[in-house]
Amino acid sequence: MTSAMLEVSSLSVVFPDRSYGPRPSRRTENSVVAVDDVSIQVNAREIVGVVGESGSGKSTLCRVIAGLQQATTGSLRYAGNDLAHKRTLADRRAIQMIFQDPYTSLNPRLRIGYVLDEALKVGGMPKADRLEAAKELLASVGLPESVLHIRPSRLSGGQRQRVAIARALAVQPQVILADEVTSALDVSIQAVIVDLLAKATLDRGLTLVFVTHNLQVVRALCQRVVVLHAGRVVEAGPVSEIFASPQHPYTRALLAAIPRLHRSASLLAEPTADESTTSAERTALPQAECHFRQLCPLAHERCRQERPALQAISAGHEVACHAVGQPEPSGDTAPRMSSSTGDGGVPGDRRG
Fold it and tell me: Please, what's the b/e burial string for 251-279 (b: 16 or more CB within 10 A of its CB; e: otherwise)?
């Protein structure tokens, strides 16, 4: 049986209303919940994609796992052990994060050699071996050893992101959190960075949590995918199953937004101006309703009264939706929830 490397249980992050002081003791209507009761399990040597629109809580979740942001409620376990708020050096080394912007994640005043030397020092490598180790790290990400003697300002965005990957690998981590690592790069460089991460994960036996907006990358790289909306997990399961047969209306909307030459009709009805909402427009006060209700074509009265819980619909596939397994409305008002291909595939996918 595959062992769990990361276990996130009932995790919530609330950014408080500062008008009540620097450390308010209660939630108010002006507080904002970024992550809302999220539970995720990531197995050893697994590549899990985390997707969702901007503001859905993906980056905040990664920062909590990495120990850079304190959780309001919930718990974290790594390799079966609880991760306390004040982590040990071994805990910090084991979980490394690669940030979205390669232009700000490296200190512009430090040469690359010094950056890698400090990381190798934290990883416990003797001083006499660090230079050769730094050269090997650069070679593993496709950079020449001459990069050791220059500062980040002389590198391109793709080269800086390669250095960031090398720095993360220098401390010999077990878990890599990749937060939108390709979004600030040219399309021609994105595939190179994704290939580097995939190769490093396989060669070193690492666990990878890959946060991205690019669903095509998730389909090619990841084994499982977690879909976040408004800080909540709305669907999670194997990539092949979710791409072939998405169950939550939000997941279907994300897949329908993938650019294609032959596009079918939209899966979601267009919301009116007073119905539309964004992930940022949510309160930290308790809410017993579905956050996606105002945009969902399948919403009914129960969605207003009761928050849907994640329920298993098959092995490893969970969905938080009251409409799952329920008969669809009849007549012209019924939303188009199935693929136009007729084979249960991704809408508009003509690959056959």
Answer: bbbbbbebeeeeebeebbeeeeeeeeeeb
Q: In this model, does residue 344 exceed pLDDT 50?
A: no
94 phi and psi, to 5 degrees? -70, -30
Q: Which residues, other chains included, contact 273 with Cβ-Cβ below 8 Å and sequence gap of 6+? A: none
- pLDDT tens digits along 298-333: 888 888 888 888 999 988 999 999 888 654 444 433
Q: What is the pLDDT of residue 287?
A: 63
pLDDT at position 21 is: 56
* 259 phi and psi angles, rounded to 5 deg: -60, 135
Chain position carrying tokens 């008008």? 19
* DSSP reduced 3-state for 169: helix
The separation between CA 261 and the C-alpha centre of its own chain, rounded to angstroms, equals 27
Q: How far apart are CA 283 and CA 40, in angstroms?
A: 23
Residues ≥6 apart with Cβ < 8 Å to 194: 182, 217, 220, 221
Cβ neighbour number for residue 153 with a 10 Å cutoff: 10
Phi, psi of 82 (to 5 degrees): -65, 140
Residue 46: left if φ>0, alpha if ψ -120 to 50, beta else—which one?
beta
23, 54 contact by CB (below 8 A): no
SS3 of 241-257: the string is HHHHCCCCHHHHHHHHC
- The number of helix segments (H) and strand segments (E) in the chain equals 10, 12
Cβ–Cβ under 8 Å, residues 317 and 279? no
Domain boundaries, the chain: 4-227
CB 123 within 8 A of CB 170: yes
Find the helix packing angle between 112-122 and 127-140, rounded to 10°: 120
* Cβ-contact 134, 116 below 8 angstroms: yes
CATH superfamily of 4-227: P-loop containing nucleotide triphosphate hydrolases (3.40.50.300)
Q: Which of 44-53, 119-128, 143-152, 327-336 has the lowest mean pLDDT?
A: 327-336
Between CA 223 and CA 348 the distance in angstroms is 22
